[in-house]
């Protein structure tokens, strides 16, 4: 198993070279696409146009504009209090996973409907399927334990013709399970992805939010700048426990997927995850560093298929007529 440095992004400028969101947001262009964004645009202390990222309405309006401008999604909305994720970082995750598939494919990124991806915790926002389908033509299954999130994600898919037939949203009936109950017998996925809850309790999530707000100069009373329901923000035992369960459940479905993956927010989580994957018999483990501004994170991907089995997968899934 290989564990490349988790804190060194592949691109020195931060975001992935194929990421559409490199550089500053072009607010005039975004406002032209989405006029309702205009009322949230302000000039910050550095003289640059921006929005107040502690205002959930502003964050949602920015996301709506980005999705319309770059991904041709006209209808996108989420309930109050649900996670409105930073789109550039979500796009980065997908582009690095595409690179992983390209390596298995000996060069080009596999595209089109033959590639199937499982998004664990799709959320009400449905961001990963939107971006992944637009950029690579991949088909997605999104799972979630929250019935409201599932309903809203289905509404987003139904309201945008470009997503027709490309995204299937499923309710995970058992909160203790991840892949079990979602992956059907004989169903195959080329990738799984997950942005796990990384706090261990509501108190921990609130303390982190207070620190962020103080760093942003907005005071401790402000709400989470990107929102989030409890199941999106915290899990008993935190990120380490969730990713341990993710790894354990992946081993039960080792023949159903080429590459499993998850984001890791805390580098302290990595040693335990590596140890678990080694015990479970993972054939290859990759750690890819990512960054956006001052934020550094990493994704960990693993497969139970050795090099020969990976090439058999490639032939069967991507090259057969």
From TrEMBL:
It catalyses: adenosine(1618) in 23S rRNA + S-adenosyl-L-methionine = N(6)-methyladenosine(1618) in 23S rRNA + S-adenosyl-L-homocysteine + H(+). GO terms for molecular function: 23S rRNA (adenine(1618)-N(6))-methyltransferase activity. Residues 1-22, 200-230 are annotated as: Disordered. Its EC number is 2.1.1.181. SUPFAM superfamilies: S-adenosyl-L-methionine-dependent methyltransferases. It is found in: Cytoplasm. It is an enzyme of class 2 (transferase). CDD domains: AdoMet_MTases. GO terms for cellular component: cytoplasm. It comes from the Bacteria. Keywords: Cytoplasm, Methyltransferase, rRNA processing, S-adenosyl-L-methionine, Transferase. Specifically methylates the adenine in position 1618 of 23S rRNA. Belongs to the methyltransferase superfamily. METTL16/RlmF family. This is Ribosomal RNA large subunit methyltransferase F. It comes from Hymenobacter metallicola. The lineage of its organism: Bacteria, Pseudomonadati, Bacteroidota, Cytophagia, Cytophagales. The gene is rlmF.
